[in-house]
Design brief:
Blueprint lengths: L9 H13 L2 H26 L5 H13 L1 H18 L1
Helix pairs in contact: 2-3, 3-4
């Protein structure tokens, strides 16, 4: 077997691959969901650290802008402004 990772012992890698093969769909989904949540949280934290002067709402819009594009971020910003104006 050709190693997939340069920093993981080949025997440990074989065990990890076998565990992944044996995992059922629910387990695989849970793992992917967990990793996705972690990535999103780390991204949000990086945005917050790089922009400490922004509000939570501004951070949310910037997160959407980085991950989903300007069009969606602009629409979100407009929607949030409309909500704010109707509450006033």
């Amino acid at each position: 077997m050709k190693p997939q990772s340069h920093d993981t012992n080949i025997e440990a890698e074989k065990v990890l691959i076998e565990l992944a093969r044996k995992a059922g769909p629910a387990r695989k989904f849970a793992q992917v969901s967990s990793i996705s949540g972690l990535i999103m949280a780390l991204s949000r934290r990086a945005i917050e650290r790089a922009n400490p002067n922004l509000s939570k709402q501004q951070i949310d819009i910037l997160f959407v802008r980085y991950h989903y594009g300007n069009d969606l971020a602009d629409r979100l910003e407009k929607y949030l402004l409309e909500i704010k104006n109707t509450e006033s």
